[in-house]
From TrEMBL, chain A:
Stretches that traverse the bilayer: 12-31
Gene Ontology BP annotations: mitochondrial electron transport, ubiquinol to cytochrome c
Domain of life: Eukaryota
Keywords assigned by UniProt, alphabetized: Electron transport, Membrane, Mitochondrion, Mitochondrion inner membrane, Respiratory chain, Transmembrane, Transmembrane helix, Transport
Subcellular localization, as worded in the UniProt entry: Mitochondrion inner membrane
Any one GO cellular component localisation term in the record: respiratory chain complex III
Function: Component of the ubiquinol-cytochrome c oxidoreductase, a multisubunit transmembrane complex that is part of the mitochondrial electron transport chain which drives oxidative phosphorylation. The complex plays an important role in the uptake of multiple carbon sources present in different host niches.
Protein name in UniProt: Complex III subunit 9
Assembly with partners or alone: Component of the ubiquinol-cytochrome c oxidoreductase (cytochrome b-c1 complex, complex III, CIII), a multisubunit enzyme composed of 3 respiratory subunits cytochrome b, cytochrome c1 and Rieske protein, 2 core protein subunits, and additional low-molecular weight protein subunits.
Family to which the UniProt record says this protein belongs: Belongs to the UQCR10/QCR9 family.
TrEMBL record, chain B:
EC category name: translocase
Name of this protein: quinol--cytochrome-c reductase
Compartments (UniProt record): Mitochondrion inner membrane
GO CC, one annotated term: mitochondrial inner membrane
Organism of this sequence: Australozyma saopauloensis
Family classification: Belongs to the cytochrome c family.
Reaction(s) catalysed by this chain's protein: a quinol + 2 Fe(III)-[cytochrome c](out) = a quinone + 2 Fe(II)-[cytochrome c](out) + 2 H(+)(out)
Pfam family, one: Cytochrom_C1
Region annotated Disordered, chain positions: 111-150
UniProt GO molecular function: heme binding; metal ion binding; quinol-cytochrome-c reductase activity
GO biological process terms on file: mitochondrial electron transport, ubiquinol to cytochrome c
Lineage: Eukaryota, Fungi, Dikarya, Ascomycota, Saccharomycotina
Length: 61, 287
């Protein structure tokens, strides 16, 4: 499988590009999840309910 | 060499050298002693009392601000501090998603009037505020601010946490550190108050935070220290609005750069392995 991806240069470059894209999305999502869990109770979307009635939609954070 | 020093050390020269050394030494001691008797400038009171290090919930590499505290702090700023202090660098839009919803921030902005473009005849007009407007200060200019405060200028609070040594700790200590009476012997200039944390001790601002001065919407008891903590957190956010994101990016940068560093160490070892392990043998030519 790896040899198939590496043999042709065009495929190799494409592999690197998609890999980088997938990795950064995964990395960013994982870290954001950890960070927000680590700071649970302090972030605005955690405390919002204490001050404002109703769930917020996209336009009204 | 020995000859010449032996010649120098005649009894007269020895005595002269000893006398000179003693005079210089005693003179220097006297000057130092006299200097130590008076110390008016750069004393502890001149610098202000150092604040204790408080356990802020945003201390630490990966800790965000407490946003409920930011919201309460904004309330304290608006109801107390804003009577004298401006917050020039914060616009209503900055509060959205941090301490208020967009509709709340819009509603607060719309309560105020801002200058609009003049009409067709050039008469100035007013319009209600919008999210992009900056929070207005209490005075139109510095002269008005000084005139309203006996010559003292209340500093703009946008960057005050960054602009003072001790940052949050200093602000909290200052706000809660007003004693009932100035200590005996302290002479204050007219119109000033005593605060040990303020460099010099004489501060134009009096104590402003008293228990139950504001009423928090989430029911938190509004003690003096609670309000001081909240407003300090709010001002820390105002000075560093990028704080939460910055710490998240810092975490990412640390992980990526340290793994790339370890990878580079491994690659180096891998590439150098045959070079380090090879054995060079020289076979001398046979005769």
């Amino acid at each position: 499988m790896f040899s198939a991806l590496i043999k042709r240069n065009s495929l190799y470059v494409a592999t690197i590009f998609t890999g980088a894209f997938a990795f950064q999305a995964f990395f960013d999502a994982t870290l954001t999840k950890w960070y927000e869990n680590h700071n649970k109770g302090k972030l605005w979307h955690d405390v919002r309910g204490k001050f404002v009635e109703g769930a917020g939609d996209e336009d009204d954070e | 060499m020995f000859k010449s020093s032996a010649r120098l050390a005649s009894p007269w020269a020895q005595r002269a050298m000893a006398t000179t050394a003693a005079t210089v030494g005693l003179g220097a001691s006297y000057v130092l002693y006299q200097d130590s008797m008076t110390a008016n400038a750069m004393t502890a009171s001149e610098h202000g009392l150092h604040p204790p290090a408080y356990g802020w919930s945003h201390n630490g590499m990966f800790e965000t601000f407490d946003h409920a505290s930011i919201r309460r702090g904004f309330q304290v700023y608006r109801e107390v501090c804003a009577a004298c202090h401006s917050l020039d660098r914060i616009a209503w839009r900055n509060l959205v998603g941090v301490s208020h919803t967009a509709s709340e921030a819009k509603a607060m902005a719309e309560e105020l009037e801002y200058d609009d473009e003049p009409d067709d005849e050039g008469n100035p007009r007013k319009r209600p505020g919008k999210l992009a407007d900056y929070i207005p200060g209490p005075y139109p200019n510095e002269q008005a601010a000084r005139a309203g405060n006996q010559g003292a200028l209340p500093p703009d609070l946008s960057l005050i946490v960054k602009a003072r040594h001790g940052g949050c700790d200093y602000l909290f200590a200052l706000l809660t550190g007003y004693p009932e009476e100035p200590p005996a012997g302290v002479v204050l200039p007219p119109g000033s108050n005593y605060n040990p944390y303020f460099p010099g001790g004489a501060i134009a601002m009096g104590r402003v935070l008293f228990d139950d001065l504001v009423e928090y919407e989430d029911g938190t008891p509004a003690t003096t220290s609670q309000m001081a903590k909240d407003v300090t957190t709010f001002l820390n956010w105002a000075a560093e609005p990028e704080h939460d994101d910055r710490k998240k990016w810092g975490l990412k940068a640390l992980i990526i750069t340290s793994s790339l560093f370890l990878l580079s160490v491994w690659v180096k070892k891998f590439k150098w392995q045959p070079i380090k392990n090879r054995k060079i043998v020289w076979n001398p030519p046979r005769k």
